[in-house]
Amino acid sequence: MTIGELAQLLKIEAKGPADYPILGLRDIERLSVDQTLEDNYIYFIESPAVFKRHPKAVENGAVLTVPALADQFKHALVAPQADSRLALIALLKHYDKTPKFKLGISPKAIVHTSAKIAGSAVIRGGAVVMEHAVIGERCILYPGVVVEPYAEIGEGTVLFPCVVIGHHCVIGKNGIIHGGTVIGADGFGFYDQPGKRYKIPQIGNVVIDDEVEIGASCTVDRATIESTRIGSYTKLDDQVHVGHNAQLGRYIYIVGNTAIGGSVTIGDGAMISGMVIVKDHLNVAPGSIIMGMSGVAQDTEPKTAYFGIPARPAKQMHRMNAALERLPELLAKVQELEESLKRPA
Fold it and tell me: Three-state DSSP class for 236?
């Protein structure tokens, strides 16, 4: 394909000879400082900061870039500044190698006769769809997927290998759930008496709204009575745990190795970084930002950044850390004062 043809496909401008051949994409961050761009491949460069790490990035190759940088390159696809990431998304989709499957149910799948499977769904060999489950239009179930009784999968949703959707759980439209994730395991509920431990039945479910993506090896536990919920457009990274009864809003980001305690409420637009623990029954306010490796032990305020263990507002933590740096000096001064007080007058 030529750079001119790609420009037409993306509906953006091309700079340089339109017949310059393009073989695919490359990642600028994989280049060492002294390497140039590889000929006939496209790199994405939207910021001049790239030139500090890769000073030879203007040599050879081609780029997808913005108007302010376009003149520095011989071959470029030029997207408006505000739309450069959308152009990158379109370019990635063009080169996407995700396999396309034949519609229908594989003879090697196990599908109960009472399950409702849309005609445009794909059920791969080794998938299991149990009693009265509902699989919507254009869904794809990879090998090893288990959809338990009465679960519902909305149209366009993709379940990658070994995903388990628990009984009566509901997954919305156009979702993506990556391999090994379990939706609807029992919540962690027990009651102790002397010499006896009782399991508290978890009779609720999990409801996940439209356009949600959940990474690999995540767990979202079912509610004790009603529903654990995840709002639309929320994105969970790999290895995130969401405890029973939690209520997650819309447009939330949660990065990997984070655990959300039971009955936690997270407001719309919150961002939670990696390796964070949120204590049960807390409220993470809309727009809150929790920085990595923090332990949230109290409710947060809207649109406020937090970090530390226990997590405190970032401005407060910066002052505390600055004071800690002076601690050895202050201790030495205190010791000196104590010694002076011991001396005879």
Answer: strand
pTM: 0.93
Write the CB contacts of 50 (distance below 8 Å, at least 6 apart in sequence). Answer: 28, 57
Which residue carries 């029973």 as its tokens? 244
**Do residues 109 and 128 make contact, with C-beta atoms less than 8 angstroms apart?**
yes
Predicted confidence (pLDDT) per residue in 216-253, tens digit: 999 999 999 999 999 999 999 999 999 999 999 999 99
User: Which residues are known to be catalytic?
Assistant: 244
Q: What are the DSSP calls for 34-91, one per residue?
A: TPPPPTTEEEE---TTHHHH-TTTTSSSEEEE-HHHHTT-SSEEE--GGGHHHHHHHH
Distance CA 132, CA 151 (A): 8
**In this structure, what DSSP letter does residue 2 have?**
B
Residue 261 to residue 248: CA distance in whole angstroms: 11
Structure tokens at 61: 């190759």
Angle between helices 3-10 and 84-94 (to 10 degrees): 110
Q: How far, rounded to the nearest angstrom, does the alpha carbon of residue 140 sit from its chain's CA centroid?
A: 20
